Every structure is written in C-alpha cells, then in structure tokens.
Amino acid sequence: MTFAPVLRSEWLKIRTLRSMPGALLALWAVTTAFSALAGAEGSSDPDFDPLFSALSGVLPGQIAAISFGASAVSSEYHGGALRLSLASVPRRGLWFAAKTTAIAAAALLAGLVTAGTAFAVGRAGLGSAASGLTTAEQVRGVLGCGVYLMLIALFAAGLTALLRSGVATLSLLIPFILVVSFVIGDAAGTLADLMPDKAGQIALHQTYDGTLGPWSGLAVTALWTTAALLAGAWSVRRRDA
Q1: What is the 3-state secondary structure (H, E, C) of the chain?
Q2: pTM of the entire structure?
Q3: Taking the mean position of all CA atoms in its chain, how far away is CA 237?
Q4: What is the mean pLDDT of each run of 10 residues along the chain (241 residues)?
C-alpha cells in the first residue's frame, strides 16, 4: 500500500469526526477573540510589543491546538479503532506517518488562517500603536504563529501516541503551558527559551532577548515535537493495538 491512499483516509477521519473541526474552530474563535481584546486594551508600557499584543490570543488558543492533536490520535484508542486501522494498513510506520501528516496539514492551515485573522483584528484595535511594525515583522509573526500552532498540535499527537490517552496528554500539557512554564520561566531566565512553548513563541514578538531568535526558537520547538513523534512512533510499532 502506498502513502497517498492512507493519507486520504486519515484526512477523511479528521474531516468527518465532529470533534476535529470543532477543535480547529475553537482555535480560531478563542485566538481571535483574545487578540481582539488585547488590541482594544492597548498599553502605555514603554516595553510594549505590538506584534505580540496582536497575536497574544494564541496563548489561550493553543489549548485548542493541543486538544486537536491529542483527539486526532486518541480517537484511535476508542472502540478498537486502532485495530481496524492497522488491519487496513499493516505497516504501522506508514499509518502513523500518514496520521501525523494529516494532523500537520490541518493544523497548519487552521493555524495560518487563525494567525492572520487574529493579527488583523488585534492590529486594528491597536491603531497607531502598531504603526511601527514593518511588513517583514508582520509576515514573520503570522507565519511563525501558524507554524507554532502546527508544531504544538503535533507535539500533543506524539505524546498521545506514547501515552495512549488523550486525557493523560491534556492533563500533562495544559497545566505545563499554563502554570509550570511560567514558573520555570521566571526562575530559569534564558533557559526558559529552550522549553517547547516558550521557544516557539519567540516568533510572536517584535523584539526579543536571549540566545534564540524567531526561527531558531521554532527550530527548538520542532526538535521537541520530533522527539515526541519518534516516541509515539515507537509506541505504535512496539505495543499491542
């Protein structure tokens, strides 16, 4: 069996399972709404970053991206679905590659649309406060945001394949991103830039300090994601369905 038909079948699963489009819609709605609120509030802080403010809705919105990645894989562990999938595609590595490719494509498309919409409404709210942003910075912020959301969804997908549970993945990642990451970040200084969420979010800032830049930060997030996917692939290949 070749890759293309397996990819089409996995893409069809994402399109037809109600929770999948729902998670992507939530990603768009939550990110856009919070970016609009941030843009309307503005800031008089001298260190105010208009690019990050316009895209700040991604901080709560990424929870939906995590839920999408986790749900796309955890659905295979309900009702014997994984056994049926592997009966149709005995090559487990091929199946997992198609699954993650479908997740990546959907998350990237949704992430770019979400980032573009959120930035547009956030920048509109900021008005003249965002006039200092260059075209290159705006394009980099939107593209970087879309790529970050894709990577974080894939990170969740890999962990779910390893843990074989969407609930376990959400219980681990959401508290980490909302609580632990901020605590460690305050205590660890520049070392926080190496955490998967903090590294990728550098691309959302107009200015940045530390050892990483926007693209190198995304590369660090990509390394974390690759490690999670490799661990997930190992679990799929070695453990019983």
Answers
A1: CCHHHHHHHHHHHHHHCCHHHHHHHHHHHHHHHHHHHHHHHCCCCCCCCHHHHHHCCHHHHHHHHHHHHHHHHHHHHCCCHHHHHHHHCCCHHHHHHHHHHHHHHHHHHHHHHHHHHHHHHHHHHHHHHHCCCCHHHHHHHHHHHHHHHHHHHHHHHHHHHHHCCHHHHHHHHHHHHHHHHHHHHHHHHHHHHHCHHHHHHHHHCCCCCCCCCHHHHHHHHHHHHHHHHHHHHHHHHHCCC
A2: 0.93
A3: 25
A4: 89 89 96 90 71 93 96 88 84 94 97 97 87 91 97 97 93 85 63 85 88 93 97 88 58
